[in-house]
Design brief:
This protein is about 45% helix and about 25% strand. The chain is α+β, with helices and mostly antiparallel strands. The strands form three sheets. It has a five-stranded mixed beta sheet with strand order 4-6-7-9-8. A hairpin with a 4-residue loop joins β6 and β7. The longest helix has about 35 residues. It is flat, with a radius of gyration of 24 Å. Bound molecules: adenosine-5'-diphosphate. Adenosine-5'-diphosphate (ADP) binds next to α4 and α6. The site of adenosine-5'-diphosphate has 21 residues, from α4 and α6.
């Protein structure tokens, strides 16, 4: 998959007469970045165009057939508000993603307690869960201090828990514990785990879930207000914290989304 740009130059001077210089430049990365950008722009345009086309259609209906029908007007206005909210969510998620990516090189400096941040994130979520008939159980330690960006950790908890409520089977478990060693992080880590008892995800999809706009069931995701960016945001926030996102799922049993935060050396316990 390597792509080269080849330049051919005649060698100057008497010594080089009749000879050429072949210059190979590996441009695989630039070309991948370019095609990634093109794909991303195409995806964003499509995602924005869908609600926009619907909005234009509703405006036409309001101006035409529904002009003198107050009940139909109410109905179309509520559909329009749903589409506008969808566009709003998409733009907010795009902004979050670009903000996280822009700051990815700078590791957060402030010391934050993950437990308090989880509790802050869960406050508004408990209501969403109970509206959806789901229960969130937690298993948290007294304290888990790491260098973190508070808003971003709250966003991780929000995105993973909302997904577990949306796609799960009604029981969500959120736990935080320290593990002695993580192979990829090469050290101890705080493990934030959101588990659900949903139908699970086909292993074919699992490696691609954190790609932008990747969904297993686009219709279902859109129907539930999804933008397809939630897990991409989680993955990039984890990377910014020098951590990682791990996804495990078993068909018929449920899914488990884990974010690992490296523990600073002087913070690890020996248990
Ligand atoms: P979306 O806005 O579509 O929810 P995400 O990036 O958060 O976007 O998730 C990507 C896709 O991963 C979802 O569309 C859904 O198909 C799948 N998914 C995410 N979380 C779960 C879960 N807990 N159980 C089953 N599928 C999930």
């Amino acid at each position: 998959d390597t792509l080269y740009r080849v330049r051919i130059r005649p060698l100057a001077g008497l010594a080089g007469a009749g000879q050429v210089l072949l210059h190979f430049e590996d441009i695989s990365e630039q070309s991948q970045a370019l095609s990634f950008r093109r794909g991303f722009v195409a995806n964003v345009s499509h995602e924005l165009k869908t609600p926009l086309t619907a909005l234009l259609g509703f405006i036409e209906t309001l101006n035409g057939p529904a002009r003198n029908d107050p009940e139909a007007q109410r109905h179309f206005l509520s559909l329009m508000s749903r589409e506008a909210r969808r566009m709003n969510r998409l733009v907010s998620d795009l902004l979050s993603l670009s903000r996280v990516e822009a700051g990815e090189r700078t590791r957060p400096k402030r010391r934050e307690d993950l437990v308090s941040l989880v509790r802050i994130a869960l406050e508004p979520l408990s209501e969403i869960a109970s509206d959806a008939g789901a229960v969130i159980r937690t298993d948290l330690p007294d304290e888990a201090v790491v260098r973190a960006d508070a808003d971003q950790v709250i966003q991780i908890v929000t995105n993973l828990t909302e997904n577990a409520v949306k796609y799960g089977g009604g029981e969500v478990e959120l736990s935080l514990r320290q593990i002695g060693y993580d192979g990829q992080l090469r050290g101890p880590a705080w493990q934030l785990c959101v588990r659900d008892n949903g139908p699970g995800i086909d292993p074919l999809h699992v490696p691609r879930l954190a790609e932008r706009f990747y969904r297993v069931d686009t219709h279902r995701s859109r129907g539930q207000g999804g933008t397809g960016l939630g897990l991409a945001i989680v993955k990039h926030i984890a990377q910014r914290h020098r951590g990682r996102l791990k996804i495990e799922s078993e068909m018929g049993k449920g899914s488990e989304f884990t974010v690992l935060f490296p523990v600073e050396r002087d913070q690890s316990t020996t248990s």
